[in-house]
Amino acid sequence: MKKVLLFCAALVVALNASADITYMTCAEAKAYTLDNLQSGESSADSVAITGYVTNTNGSISRGQQTFWLDDVKGTTKTFQAYWCNMPLGNDDTPLEVGDKVIIKGYLLNYNGTTAEMKNGDVVILERNIVERETIEVGVCEAIEEGEALASGDLTEDYFQVKGVISSVDRTDSTNFQQTVWMTCSDNSKRFEGYYMTLTDKQFVDVKDTVLMLGRITNFNGTIEIANGKMWTIGRAQREEIKTIEATVEEALAVGQALADNETTRDTYVVRGYVDSIAAAYDSQYKNISFFLTTDINNPTYDLEVYRCKADGDIELGSEVIVTGKIKKYVTTKNEETTTLIEIVNGTFEYVTSDALYDVTTDQTTVKTLENGRLIIRRNNRRYNAVGVEL
Hints:
Blueprint: H1 2-16, E1 22-25, H2 26-36, E2 47-56, E3 64-70, E4 79-85, E5 100-105, E6 107-110, E7 114-118, E8 121-126, E9 134-138, H3 139-147, E10 158-172, E11 177-183, E12 190-198, E13 209-214, E14 216-219, E15 222-226, E16 229-234, E17 243-246, H4 248-256, E18 267-282, E19 287-293, E20 303-309, E21 319-333, E22 336-350, E23 365-370, E24 373-378, E25 381-383
Parallel strand pairs: 1-2, 4-7, 9-10, 12-15, 12-16, 17-18, 18-23, 20-22
Antiparallel strand pairs: 2-3, 2-5, 3-4, 5-8, 6-7, 10-11, 10-13, 11-12, 13-16, 14-15, 18-19, 18-21, 19-20, 21-22, 23-24, 24-25
């Protein structure tokens, strides 16, 4: 232990010797970020922030972890470290509340309200000893545990949840992760495993039996384990997965027929025009979200292509072919329910390399979810999902 502390001390000294890094407390970093950077703006120079971990779900995903820091031990969430890079060799040892760290990277004003550092590098200075139990439960019990939490809270202990997969949502083949759902047989309530790491590197499908391990959270009413571990303990007999060609309208009909938050097993190939960008290209995860329409001159704003794999931005008005599974995404917030039909985590190819049709100013539209509600922004005006101006 003494050697580890000496190494960390030497590392801090070496970092301090770098003239181009500014060292800040968590309070200083938050004040500077919110007072001097515009919403969405990053600092020009890198900084190093020292603090104690005050909130985390205790999970590492893709070698990264998200957590909150403060200048003293406790529960105050002063500065957010968003998917920061853990030191090599720490893939199975996530940060816990009370750990002392340095994060190095660029300040970011997120949404005008949150001071954060995205994809910074973590140096661990001190480890806090945290003893947690691992409790074995079924799906129904796991849901009860989550429903007892306030929105955004986590269980203190880890839970090992055994159940049968009722729906597969997203699959990340590169990092061996999947997002899946299990259903309580007593009341049909659903439990989500969000981007679970497959420790046995075996992808699961509907009717497979799995074990999930992690801390249960109530995420805005969705009961889940996020970024935990999952492994397969029983395989169901496989049914043939079909690849089906469909129009935008046919894809919408398939999605509407699904149960809430259900995803098809079959893969669909859908051809249409890009009428708007729902979420800009993400260079880290190399994906983009957009909406498809059959008639570019009369966009319908109904079918979203969510987190589609891409190498860069996509041109509005382009004719594309999208391949992926269809999902009926339903979310309720502030007593208002939004339903979106999506093609999730698919791929696309251009029918032509450039947009064949011009998209006029009136048709250049951006759609976002605000508090669980679909909002269409066009010409600096806001409309709801059926086109009524707000």
